[in-house]
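User: I'm preparing a small set of examples for a lab meeting where we compare how different chains pack in three dimensions. I only have the primary sequence for this one, and I'd like the structure in token form so I can line it up with the others. Please keep the answer compact; I'll paste it straight into my notes.
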Amino acid sequence: MSKLNLGSVILGERRYQSLVLFGLQERTFLRLLALFLVLSAVLYPYPRLAMWLGFMLAGYSAIANDSIQTIGTFISSNSEQKWWKLWLYIGGIFVVTVFYSWIVYDGDVTYQRLSSPEFSESPTSFHFLQIAAPIVLLLLTRLKMPVSTTFMLISCFSASSSGIFSVTQKSLFGYGVAFVVAMVVWYALSGIIKRITSGTPHPAWRISQWLISGWLWSMWITHDAANIAIFLNRKLTTIDFVIFASFIFFGLGLLFYLRGDKIQKIITEKSDTEDVRSASIIDIVYLFVLFVFKEWSNIPMSTTWVFLGLIGGRELAMQFSKNSETNRSVTQTLKMIGRDILFATIGLLVSVSIAIAVNPSIQKELAVYFGWE
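Assistant: Understood. Below is the structure token output for the 373-residue chain.
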């Protein structure tokens, strides 16, 4: 057999092995989802058990999906670092951030994001779909969809349509603000950004990026810890807090071991995100936008929509800037932005559908609005 034919056979065998391994991984994942659905169906009538099952499913699914926003650029630009170093740093910041809220706000780990009338009451019973919502989120994450965890997890606990409307309004406004801010920054400052990101980065950039990423991650927690804690009592006991913090801490370890898993592609396909300087600039702008919305109101919002607006505006600005270099055409960029919006919208529609199915009060409001009764 010639060397060429032998090489083709070896390459073919490797591709076959990769496909087999991929198939096994997907089957294992689907079996786990089926197991979680069965557990949800069995345990949802028992509030104490359902509470912790829902939290655990929401904890991993929310962090896994939202990892693209805050630690996605961190993972991408630190691909040469040991995964456990990244985990201990980010995990440690999580524990410190939620501990501060737990102490200052008397057992509340959400920075009072659930203090509005629609969400202020601790759940005393659960609907099957409320527990199943994180499982749907896990499936959509596996399909690499940047779904809003705020819509998916919080909306199904809203006592009225006004709560969902408030969250949706703030989130869509956040998308628009982030898109415009990104367009202005990456177009107006493209020359400066190009000079900053050219050549070999100074070692100080690595330190700065870790500090900025840590600050951004902490800011994200102040917004999105509510997505996870929505299943739990509004005031956690010491034991509850230890379980809460420990589960998320070790869940982050798994996420870093998997290097962000499949959802990480949303970041890696964007321009220059592996450069520590570009990643730092993205994080700084995102941090600024999140800080503004944090100070604006305590209404929960989708940080996913804000992040997609930021990335979309950046990519489009780079197309029109003379100082930016990109391999994509304007059409390809618009398709990429449109695809991200489409996937996020699918998540929004699914979450609203779950919220309607769960809440009789919302069903009644819709019936009155459309004249069905």
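A couple of notes for your slides: DSSP finds 15 helices and no strands in the chain. Residues 45-361 form one domain.

User: Perfect, thanks.
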